[in-house]
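Human: My hope is that you can spare some time for a protein that puzzles me. I am handing you a single protein, as its sequence and its fold in token form. Could you go through the record with me and say what the backbone is doing? Take your time, and here it is.
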Amino acid sequence: MRSHKDFITELDLVVEMKKSLIFSFIIASLVIGLAIILIAAFTGFPWDRDGNAKGRAVNGTQEEKDANGAQSEEIPGNDLDEKNQPSIAGIQLYADREQVVEILGTGYQETFYEEAGHFPEPFVIWKYESGFEICIGKHSNKVFQVTATSPEGITNLGCKVGYSAKDVLETYRAKYVEPESIHGGKLLGVFKVEDGQAMIFDFNIEDGIVNQGEIDPDAKVERIILTYPAFIDDSF
């Protein structure tokens, strides 16, 4: 039979165990609370004052995101607009040669270039007397570059040879940027359009494809080129 002393000893042990458990619970609660505070300090609380979950606005306020939908960073000339791809006379880069024939016909003179140069492969130039030159990959049969000196060479934004610099620049500067060349200087009249392509408006064929100095608003477009920067030994 247990004595009264033994009963008291066991009771003391139970009390001590309860104290230990309570102390452990308090310590664990403090650690968890401190962890939540530290996480919130770096990432922001994921709830509002009413206990509702809230998102984190990266570009713009949360209210703007709720009102306008998800925002995305837009890089001028680097957004791919499937409905309005750059073109001249309806011809886009990397179109099949058959599409060129459908639009311009077969009345061309072909010149073959074995050395690829800045193009991805050897190529041919189809030269039309009407004022078009189409560069086409010899093996891929894809269009690499479109050049127009004909008034029929209308771009997808409605500009063409013979238009004034004022009208062309206003149209394209409203949508695209004139980039900096890796060789130095801003490429006036050259626009970085969709999919990283370059739409070039040349106002003086005799001085090369890069316009020298400021462009006279009354100057007329003499040539339009659609290409990729790498194909003209540049990068932008």
About this structure: The first helix runs from residue 4 to 43. The chain is about 25% helix and 15% strand. Residues 47 and 53 are 4 Å apart (CA to CA). The radius of gyration is 34 Å.
